[in-house]
Structures are given as C-alpha cells and as structure tokens.
Amino acid sequence: MTKGWKELPEGGLITEAGNAHKYETGDWRNLRPVHNPEKCINCLFCWIYCPDSAIIVKDGKVVGIDYAHCKGCGICARECPDRVKAIEMVDESEFE
Amino acid sequence: MATKELVARTGNEAMAEAMRQINPDVVAAYPITPATEIVQLFSAYVADGLVDTEFVTVESEHSAMSACVGASTAGARVMTGTSSQGLILMAEILYIAAGLRCPIVLAEVNRALSSPINIHCDHSDTMSVRDSGWIQIFSENSQEAYDNMIQAVRIAEHMDVRLPVMVTTDGFIISHGLEAISLLEDKEVQDFIGPYKAAYSLLDVEKPITVGGLDFTDFYFEHRRQTAEAMQNAKKVILDVGREFGEKFGRSYGFFEGYKLEDAEIALVLLGSTAGTARVAVDQLRAAGVKCGLLKLRVFRPFPAAELAEALKHLKAIAVMDRSDSLSTAGGPLFTDVRSALYDLPERPAIVNYIYGLGGRDITVEDLEGIYRELQRISGGGQVQETIQYLGVRE
Amino acid sequence: MANLKQLAAKEDLLTGGHRACAGCAAPIIVRQVLLAAEHPVVVGSATGCLEVTTTLFPYTAWKVPFIHNAFENSAATVSGVEAAYQSLKRQGKYDKEVRFIAFGGDGGTYDIGLQSLSGAMERGHQMLYICYDNHAYMNTGIQRSSATPLGAHTTTSPAGKVIPGKKQYRKDLTAIMVAHNIPYVAQTSVSHWRDLVTKVKKALDTPGPTFINVLSPCRLGWGFKPEDTIELAREAVENCFWPLYEVENGVYKLTYKPKEKKPVVDWLKKQTRFRHLFKPGNEELLAKVQEYIDTEWEKLLQKCGVE
C-alpha cells in the first residue's frame, strides 16, 4: 500500500539519494548488449557514453552490464571502436 | 515590558526596519512602486554592514521569488518585498514556494493591477494570489505592519506550518503615510524570532535531497493535502504567536479585531487601512444612538471562517467591504468567503457587498456612514435592493 | 586531465533507473559533468526532459543535492542557493567548499529562461550554467525553439505544403553569453567527453559565473536510431555545425579543429527532421543551411585567430 499524506515527507522531498536505482528500466529493452571480455580493450568509451550508468566498471575494466537498468539503446556497441567491437546487440527474444 | 518612545515611520520604513532587525540570511528583491523604498532601505542596510544578509539584486520579481525559493531550500532565512504587477509576476513561484514548504516572509504593499496601470492602493494584487498557499496578513497601519513582519517569521518557520507568509500594507495610504510607532529593541526581535532551523537543506551535501520532483496522479494529491494541513495548523500558531507578542510587547493580535462589535446590530467587515476611517464613522453613529460596529480582518489566509461566524452571528445586517473585484459578478473575494462562513448559522444576518476604493479611490467617513444607514434600513426589515454594489464610482 | 580509467574510479552521481528515452544524450552529459566536478556540487534544473525523467517521485536518480523550481528560472533558483551559501559561509554557519550547477534545455535557456540566466550571470554568482541543447522543446513533444536550426521540422514548425520547416536561423546563445563578459564561456558536445570534462572542470575552477553550451542530440526530435546519439553529435562537430571552442576572459580559443570540414548534407540526411530538405524545390534552402554554417565557421575562426 502506497503511503498516505501523513507519512510522506513534506514538500514532495525525496530524501533517499539515487533511489531511482530501485526502479528497473531493463524491461524497456528489445536488444541486449552482450559484452565479450576477450575482445574488450577496456577503453571505457561504452562506459562514458552510457545514458543509464549501466556499464559496470571495476578497477578500470568492464566487468559486466547492468541489465536491470540498460534500456538497450546500443550506444555502447556503436561506440566500441571498429577494430574491437566487443559488444554485440542481440535480440532479447534469444534469451527467453 | 519595555515602554518605548514613539518614532515616526512610514509603512515602508517600518517594514524595512523590521527586516533589518530580523536580519535574514538572504533577501532577493526587485523595486516596484510603492514598495520600492523597502528594497532601497534594505540595500542601504546591506551597504552599511548593518545586516548579515546576502542581497540578491535580481532582474525581475519572478527571479526574486525563484532565488528566494533556492535560498530557502538551501537552509537560509529568506525575505523579500513587492507589490502589484510584481506580486503577480511572482505568482507562479509563490505557489511553488508554498508547495515546497519554504517559510519565506514577503512584505507586500497592496496596489491595483493593470490594466489600466495604476500605482495606488487596492487589494487586487494580494487577492489574486489568495489560493497560492501563502498565509496572508493585512495591516491597518505602520505599527501593525511592523509587528506583523516580526510575527510572520515565527508563524512561517513553525515546524507545524512551514509555509510562506505575506504581510500587507495599503499602498501609499500606509506605505508612505508617516505615523508614530513603537519599535522593539534589536535584541527583543532576535529573542522573539529565535535562530532559524531549516527543515532540510540543499547544502547538506552529505545527505543529498531532491527538491521539486515530479508527481503523477499517485502522489500529487497527498502532497497538496499536506499543504492544506499546514494551513490548518497555521491557525493555532497565528493565535499563539499573536498572544505571545502581546504578552511580551503589549500589543496582542488575533485573526481579526472587533470594534464596538459585541452589542452591535449592524457592522462592516473589512481589511486594512479603511478600518481607521470606519472607526470614526462608528463613533459618530454611536453618538447618534446607532448600534453599529466593525470587524477588521487581519488574517485572510488561512480564512478564519468558524471564528468569523461566531463573531458575526448576533448581527442583523453586515456589509462586507471589498477593495478589489473578483469580476465574477458574484461579489468580491472577501464577500464570498464571509458569506460562505455564515452559511451554517441557524439564523444568518443579512449581508451585502460594497466594492470600493479601486485604484486608490478615496473612501470617506461619509461614505461609510451611508453604508451603515443602509444597513440600519435593512436590519429594520427593509429589503436588500442590490446585494453587490460599487461604492464611489461615477455612473 | 583525467583519463577514463581515473574517471571510472569515481562514483557515478546519476544512477540508472531514470526514465529518459533509450539513447538520450542528456543523462550522458550529466554523468560527464558530475564526473568532472572535484568538489561537492548542488544541482538545479529547469523543467524539461532531464528534470522529469530523473525526479519522478518517489524516485530520484540524483546522488547530489538537486532542486527543480520551474521552467524559466533554473539560473535564478541556483543563484538563490548560491546566495544562501555565501551568506551562511560569511556568517560562519557553513564551512564546506561547494560548487553550483544549473541545467536547462534549450527551451529553458535560449527562450523562456534567458532573462533569468542573463540576470544571474550579470550578478556574478559562483555558478556554472549548462545548457543541453537538443534544438527543440522535446519534453512537450518536439516544438520549435530559438535553438532549432533553419529548415528543421518540428511540430510547431512543420514541413508543410507551403512552408518547409523552421523559417528562421538558430539564435547564437553562446555568443550572447560571451557578450555578458563573464570569465568563462564554452561550447562542447556530448560526443567529445574529454573536451566536455575539461571545460566543466575549468568552469568550476573559475571564480564567478560560467556558461557551457552542450550539443545534445535527441533521437525522437531529430529522428535517428538510438545508438547513433554520439555519432550524430560527433558529425555535427566535424561538419562545423557545432564547433568546439571556449572564451576565457574574452579570449576565443578553438578547442577542436576538424581535419577536413565535411559537408552538412550527410549529417542532415541521417535525421528525419530534415528529410523534406531533399525534396525537389528545396535546393535553395539546403544551400542556405550550408552557407550559414560556412559563414559562422569563418567568423569563429577569425575570432579564434585560426587560419
């Protein structure tokens, strides 16, 4: 049950920073970016150009993709350098 | 209680003086007749280092209120001042200030709205934003303007309220009228208002908050309901603060003030500076044996409907004086609210509405005596001929 | 200048889970801006795509303090926040070192918010204003703004039987901001992350008001595939539609010069908003689009003292 007016913070304030993370936009996706660590040179272009903060980087390396939030725009695959192409966009139906 | 020497102050000077003593963290304001002086005087206080205030010399009233909202959500005590077109240019952000629960205090000098452009007093500007979620306090004279400004800080900042407050004076009549008033000591003002405690602050970078998010159908109503509750809470706070002010400084305040009202059979209900004129009319008619009285409303928002009904229920006939016109054809804003407040009474007084004084048109003792005479006729069983009338306009 | 590995070591201050369209440039710009900041920041935004998609109650994508007030007052609002900061700091009631950033789209910046922006810049607040320019009112469904280029189709400058899209040239907002004589003005693009991050860092380190205009392609409004967002921005830089430059204390500097200035038609062809320009009868208009870019580019090269 959604909170009533007596329980909500006043003034429409949102007090939990970055809680949009709890909202999953992954189901918007038609195409899934699949990352190939063997091909990846960790240039991180995919990371800097991701609109959804969905490229997971640890210690300077791409370690995965946050499918809970990735909307499948394909910028990561497009911006992956031509000589590398470590990310492939695959139709979601292939994962069903 | 300190007994003070009286000093001569215009309404604008009195409001600016209160602002100096309140010493807000931020003032963002833009000049407009007849409130310009407030901004000018305050600029001089800043220039002379008499206040700690960061004074934001914005390029419009819209930006004035926008900057006030920014400063208030950043944890500052914030004030501004304006009038007329300036107030309605702010209107969009007035609503936002209330919705975001910013306890901003605004010195508003009542002035007519364009068109035609006119710089003189009526209440059209303040009335036009009466549903913005701001507490609205009217002042009869410079003393009240001064006292109301100081009380407004306490009311706005009360944790049960957290709503902005506009304190109004009547343009030129009060704003530029010199009067003998009693000022408090700076320390008395500071002790009365206390230090500001922000409910939240954008500057709290360790606990980042988001202010002004988007509500869809699932939350908007709840947030509006909270604001309505805050307005409800304000009623008690206004009375408590008015009482405490009286205990400390000898001048008590409530929602309204009656004058020879208790045993009256007929009365006027009005706002602001016209009360002084009405008192003279009451005294003259009383001397002639007419049982007349006056109710001067101080707090228009929240509207003290039940309290007004209680104070007016014994009357036979009432004239509500509106210094603005809603142009609804159903009466001025004060009239519709007062009449609605009386609806649940088992026996309702007869009630009529006079729209008067638009654009600074003078109202005289004789004008008001004429209205009391008409009320006498009605209370004696005469028919109300016209419920809504325009007083003092050339036909 | 930080490289991407160093930037990636920092916390992302805009989370996923916001509701911007797939491939939207605005959140990419915000991420890059926030990564560039070396102090805690307080952010404000005008009403618009960025604001509505990132702050849908009860969720916020922001991990920094954020305020939205209204459409036309992002600059005035943040100027108020900054005023509170200055006041509280001067009074000894606050001791942190903070930076202030206001965002607005081109609608909220070039048009309805221009006065508020101009006032805030003139007053000299310590704040950075960033316009994410996507060339139209995208949040309300692609209406023309004064940033919409000549000939572009929008829902209020539709390509019809008689009128071929927007009849006017774009307003040069960056030049208007330069005319304010503020210490730092720059133009950059979402595609050039290093250029963007460097400029943001420079702006945030500059005492006084600063302004950065960022090209922000919109797949819906411009009509292209979502994966092409960055590529479209890059091409606009390469064909000199959107030059990258900065003006520091009045001195112009070109921060990127394309090796070879490409013709604009290739870029136009990739966007459905310009589709009608390629129909017979619109040759003259198409030529004017190129001509305008050429003239503006030459003027800029002169200002920058580049041969």
Topology readout:
The complex is a heterotrimer of chains A (96), B (395) and C (307).
Chain A: E1 31-35, H1 45-48, E2 55-58, E3 61-65, H2 75-79, E4 87-91
Antiparallel strand pairs in A: 1-4, 2-3
Chain B: E1 6-9, H1 11-22, E2 26-28, H2 36-47, E3 54-56, H3 61-73, E4 78-83, H4 84-99, E5 105-110, H5 124-128, E6 135-138, H6 142-157, E7 165-170, E8 179-182, H7 186-193, E9 210-211, H8 220-249, E10 256-259, E11 266-271, H9 274-287, E12 292-297, E13 299-301, H10 305-312, E14 317-322, H11 333-342, E15 350-356, H12 365-379, E16 388-391
Parallel strand pairs in B: 2-3, 2-4, 4-5, 5-7, 6-7, 11-12, 11-14, 14-15, 15-16
Antiparallel strand pairs in B: 1-8, 6-13, 10-12
Helix pairs in contact in B: 1-2, 1-6, 3-4, 6-8, 9-12, 10-11
Chain C: H1 4-8, H2 25-36, E1 41-45, H3 49-54, E2 66-68, H4 74-90, E3 99-105, H5 106-111, H6 114-123, E4 128-133, E5 136-137, E6 143-144, H7 173-178, E7 184-189, H8 193-205, E8 210-215, H9 219-223, H10 229-238, E9 245-248, E10 251-254, H11 265-269, H12 283-304
Parallel strand pairs in C: 1-2, 1-3, 3-4, 4-8, 7-8
Antiparallel strand pairs in C: 5-6, 7-9, 9-10
Helical run tally of chain B: 12
Q: What is the number of domains of chain B?
A: 2
Order of helices and strands of chain A: EHEEHE
Q: What fraction, in percent, of the residue positions of chain A are helical?
A: under 10%
Shape summary of chain A: elongated
Q: Quickly give the structural class of chain A.
A: mainly beta
Radius of gyration of chain A: 17 Å
How confident is the prediction overall: mean pLDDT of chain A?
Answer: 97
Oligomer: heterotrimer
Distance between the termini of chain B: 53 Å
- Helical proportion of chain B, percent range: 40-55%
* Main beta sheet strand tally, sense and closure of chain A: 2 strands, antiparallel
